[in-house]
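Hey, I was hoping to borrow your eyes for a little while. I've been staring at a protein lately and its backbone has me curious. You're getting the sequence in one-letter code plus the fold written as tokens. Would you mind checking whether the tokens look sensible for this chain? Here's the protein in full, and shout if anything looks odd to you:
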Amino acid sequence: MSAYKRILLKVSGEALSDPTDESHAILSKTICQNLVKEIKAVHDLGVEIGIVVGGGNIFRGKLAADLGVERIKGDQMGMLATVINAIGLEGVLRSAGVPACVHSAIPACQAVEEFNAERAKKQIAEKTVVIFAAGTGNPFFTTDTGAALRAVQTGCDVFFKSTKVPGVFDKDPIKHSDAVKYDRLTFGEALEKNLQVLDQTAFALCRENKLPILVFKLGEEGNLMRAVQGESVGTLVTDN
């Protein structure tokens, strides 16, 4: 049984590529197929799914700055990168027999649908996996904020934030072997301890709308299913 009826899953662009791949492919066949296998299992359980995908495997803001590209244009390049990833993920889902579509906050009508909250809600309710691309469609906002916004707009029960580490820690577990992981936190505790769960705008959106956040490691087989079933995976941040 699922603990949630409708979820919003945030996947980074980097999570879709393999840094060890000598071909330097922006999308790893193995990683994408494994991710879709996890999503399909949850979808087959009857869970309604929205996905927000990042674009860091293709383009990051730092590269724009290094090139001398102004911030607004750099952010637009990053948003377009997420559209490429979303179309790729859509294709892999469909090839696995999972109905999927892409909504983009930046119009690209020959390739994907333009974002419409009501239509997206209807499609999700009909068990189509809706992939949201191009963040909020505006510069200066992260894909975390775009994900929080889409989760609220489409009535999701929880925001699943996938990361490279298995939850929220008191300090960076990659740099500190004695870092302590939190299993549960309130929004207030996360603020008091100055824990970087999400960027401030995304965090505020979730807190204001009482939307729980689950921070967990997606790359481990079965983790998404365990998270959906309410098992102790990662760190759950709630209103109380």
In short: The chain has a mean pLDDT of 94. Residues 71-95 form the longest helix (25 residues).
